[in-house]
Amino acid sequence: MGEEVVFEEIRIPEQKWLAGVAFPAVLAPPSFPDGHPDAAGLAWRVQRGKAAVEAALRTSGAVLLRGFPERTAAEFNEVVEAFSWEELPYVGGAAPRTNVVGRVFTANESPPDQKIPFHHEMAQVPQFPSKLFFFCEVEPREGGETPIVLSHLIYERMKEKYPEFVSRLEERGLIYTRVLGQGDDPSSPIGRGWQSTFLTTDRKVAEERATKLGMKLEWIDDGVKTVMGPIPAIKTDSTRGRKVWFNSMVAAYTGWEDSRNDPVKAVTFGDGTPLPADIIYDCLKILEEESVAIPWQQGDILLIDNMAVLHSRRSFQPPRRILASLCK
Q1: Which domain does 205 fall in, by range?
Q2: For residue 166, what are the CA distances in angstroms to 275, 276, 284?
Q3: At 4, is the pLDDT very low, low, confident or very high (cuts 50, 70, 90)?
Q4: Is 43 inside a domain boundary?
Q5: In a shared domain, residues 155 and 282
Q6: Average of per-residue pLDDT across 130-159
Q7: How many domains does the chain have?
């Protein structure tokens, strides 16, 4: 079977069109001549038409796979496996998560009333995933979208509006500081404890893994303070030959708040000087303006190029269950 019949590109109202390119690309099963969609599984299709998905991802930065029969975590895991991309263990990330099956775990488990601000996945550590999968196992009763935005657009708008600030970011990078408890705190959007952050209960092993990431640890009474950086805030997307706003600055400054953490101290310039609040909040506004938010439907799979696209999460009314998988 040729690739041209494995996937069909469709349009949905929420997409944006930028220089004639759909964001995100939306792929669905092709229809038979009688109008009924071909019901073959997505994992089967990926094995035959992976190049078509990769081409859409390269062009658009994000691909929504909609209308396929997959409904369970195990079926989603089969789809992830079908791509044959190497898994990236979730070491150093902030979000509380639980492994579900195989390479699949829950997306950020913070409470439904909390928004998760825009970020590139694990931009605050040197080893970050190149691609992310999100899967809608249970669609939200209300809200709960995962808005996405093209990172190079944010860089261009910020560079135009705040050239001095962006120059300082490019020169100095950022330092991220976070205090972790021992165990996970499900009430916090950054509630991952140090044991699950470093996948160990041994402090020495945690220190070794932190050192590999270039992270400093300072042990305190009920946990550990982690200091990461200076680390670049702007990167070059070599696939597309353009600069991208690759950081978790807005997420940290506006969202890294719980009983242990003050978001204003969570991220600074690479020389330790504070960031200007007015510019951070204007950046948040620009992110929202440029973003696309597509309501989840059960069975949806959203594939994101982590270098090209930032993502976030809106608050929601339960139930909602979104699963995730990270690839090197």
Answers
A1: 151-288
A2: 11, 12, 15
A3: very low
A4: yes
A5: yes
A6: 98
A7: 2
More confident residue, 199 or 73: 73
Q: Please state, in angstroms and rounded to a whole number, the distance separating the CA atoms of residues 79 and 184.
A: 29
Measured CA to CA, the distance from residue 9 to residue 214 in angstroms comes to 42
Give tens-digit pLDDT for 186-201: 888 888 899 999 989 9
The pLDDT value given to residue 322: 96
Name the token pair of 283.
């950046």
Do 230 and 201 fall into the same domain? yes
Rounded Cα–Cα distance for residues 47 and 174 (Å):
40
Are 46 and 83 spatial neighbours (Cβ–Cβ below 8 Å)? yes
Q: For residue 255, what is the enclosing H or E element? A: helix 249-255
The answer to whether residues 173 and 270 touch, using CB atoms and an 8 Å cutoff, is yes
pTM for this structure? Answer: 0.93
**Cα(105)–Cα(326) distance, rounded to whole angstroms?**
9
DSSP states along 175-190? EEEEEEESS--TTSTT
What secondary structure does DSSP assign to 276-315, as a single string? PHHHHHHHHHHHHHH-B-----TT-EEEEETTTEEEEE--
Name the packing angle between helices 151-161 and 163-172 (round to 10°). 120
132: which 2 tokens? 């992310």
